[in-house]
Design brief:
single chain, mainly beta, Pectate Lyase C-like, four-stranded antiparallel beta sheet, 24 strands, about 5% helix, Putative auto-transporter adhesin head GIN domain-containing protein, DUF2807
Amino acid sequence: MRTLTFLFFLMGCVGYTQIKGNGIIETKKFDINNVHTIKINFYADVLIDTAQEESLTITTDNNLFQNIDKEVVDGVLSIGQLEWIQPTKKAKIIIGAPGLKAVEQGTHDTTKIINLNTQEIRLMALVGKIIVEGKTQELRIGNEVGTVDASGLIAENATIQIWSWGRAKVNVMNSLDSDLNDNAKLIVTNTPKILKGDSKRMIAKSSIKKDASIEYINFKIKNNSFSRNNFFVVGPKPDGSKFGYGFPMMPGSVRKENWTTGTKVYKVNSLGFRKLLVTIKAEDKDQIVKLF
């Protein structure tokens, strides 16, 4: 029985072998056409320039290009991984997208949009950060735990929805409408003529209360299962805000962490549902915390 279990363990490891970069960095340019929406699910420094002609330029290890998803379907450019890869340096991506209408950030990196000049732009930061500069008539933001910094974007009107502890910073001239979670944070760099929804409440919120009882501790976590799993971590910060991100772990692997007390680790299944596994406590300092 032990032999059979070990064989399954090895099969799982082989099935999820990581492809590492070979250290030979190259830049390649790819043709894209009629792109209006960009979805980022690949860890990289991403720059979207709406003043450039349509193009996609990627700089990374030359043995990884074939494992990067860069397909355009019905005007949607999806940047992701076809295989589990590890570049030797963070990849750099530049996208020319004059017809840009929407961007979705799905990693904990930063995507920057420059030279925007459009009637409407939709930005969704599930995680990570989006920075945008330019001008638009209609700005629509949807955040979960990510951040949208649109302070460099002159927006005539804006509609903002934050359904978790995400953040947004905006510069709105005329009308601002918002639907915000109690843990959300909205910063308005000016005073719009019209305030709708709970904008007034959030603007009046001068500061976030600090919690001195929260401290960072060093420890290790271990995936003590026989399967590769995806996890999501959510933790409080001493300044009252929160952090959160996802990560995979191979079976039996151990990784060092520096998280705050009260941090929660969830297992994420194939449908995206989360199951709470552990909550980090002060006594976990310098220990190995088993996730199962």
